[in-house]
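Ticket #4471: structure output looks truncated?

Reporter: J.K.
Steps to reproduce: submitted the chain below (170 residues) through the standard prediction queue, then opened the result file.
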Amino acid sequence: MIYYLLLTASGGIVGAGSVPELPIPANCIACTQIEAETWPTLEIVNGTIQAIPAAQLLTQAQTAQRAIIKSSFIAASTANVTDSNGIVWEGGMQSGNSIFLGCQLAQQAGQSTITLYDANKAPHSMTIAEGMGVAALIGTAYQEALAKKNTLYANIDAADSVSEVQAVTW
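Returned output as attached by the reporter:
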């Protein structure tokens, strides 16, 4: 069996494969079976297959894991929230800020009530204090997601190996 690494146009490794006999496919470089099995830890330098330094692998894993955590954070930080009355409100800092500012403006205008719209765009008339409670509920959910993201980022930064980094999940 002949093993090879599939290369990008710029010489980066994108995968590995094998053929029963020569020739190997175009845009490939011959390698050992072990190199084919461990290709994500390898790079091509001046036409030679080399191991990527451990520190670089760790940095790459940290960058990739932060991106995964960030994606989870975005979903969690904008998720809808349900109040004690069972009303579902749009989540996220922008929603919380809009409600908060709307309540402040209504209060400044001398109003004692405000109409807020839930996640389904249904109107709900309530006191300014109740509206501020909705804003606080949304803000708290956002802050909890932010705190979790920051904790997970710190765990990623503290990890000493790729496997430790990959174990940090939302």
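Triage note (M.O.): checked the attachment and the full token line is present. The mean pLDDT is 96.
Status: closed, working as intended.
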